[in-house]
Design goal:
By secondary structure, the chain is of the alpha+beta class. A hairpin with a 4-residue loop joins strand 10 and strand 11. Helix 1 crosses helix 3.
Length: 350
Amino acid sequence: MKIPESSQTTIKAIVQHYEDNQGDAFRAHLGGSIIGRPCDRALWYTFHWCTEVKHSGQLLRLFQTGHLAEERFVADLRSIGIKVFETDPATGKQFRVSACNGHFGGSFDGVGQGFIEAPKTWHLIEMKTHNEKSFNNLVKKGVQEAKPEHFIQMQVYMYLANPQLTRAFYIAVNKNTDELYGERVRLDPVIGKATLQKAEGIIASDRPLCKITEDPSWYLCKFCDHQAICHGQEAPAVNCRTCMHSTPIEEGEWHCARHDMDIPESVQKSGCELHLYNPYLLEQFAEPTDSGEYWIRYRLKSTGEEFVTGTDKGQFSSREIQAVEDKRLLTDEKLAGLKTQFDGTIENNQ
């Protein structure tokens, strides 16, 4: 007979361990592994750390399963005589490409030579795991049609590699059956260049780019990490990259105009008490009507009423704007009056 399950179990503890140790929610650069996604606005939001994403322990464990499969892929390739390098002999580290002043780039799984289809040609190697539905679609349509994000990832990695690679080998496994799939991919310099230009445009823009659709129920929007700020009333995370005073500069660094300093990555994540939202990030529920050096006046789109964001008395800080779920309260005279009278702050206690 099955023993009744207690509120705390071994399995729950394992899952919780993954959640407690999932690491940083933000990536310093715009990644080549995601640049093939179709929505430029979502990519801009990701680069500017607009949404802090926390995954479930189960999903984090699934990600790890994909990484664990790489060791077996390498062993399989070497077992038939293919020469595989997982790290760059020149650096001893994973192969990496970088562009856009260090703000764009990524790491690829390896390079290899000795593939039966073209024994003398060096190939970039990309390794992926798939569920059965995804794998069957891959076998039927090929990687460019079935997984365009993976295809673009390989294209930009080949294009940026030094020396440039002209072929990639995509190896995938069906996690349900252990069936393998392999496909050689030819470098298309036009696609590589266009992808790099796409990344440059995202990084250079001082405002969110166009949405892929205005329909929040469309499937890509429905499951997007940024759905709540792109289609809803939620304000973005408060950090240096959502502040109007920060700008990406050379060597992958960011500069703060208000403090006139380069911002260390560790500082970027928390921001400072002088944070002032890039006004384009609040456009779902408010539009700017006036501004000074360190304040911005907004008009709520729902009511036409106004509020001021800043750090002086009677103004709402960025953290307060984020904490207030019903944005109509930002113009509530009693709420603003209490802040002025007691020099208080509004906090989200949920």
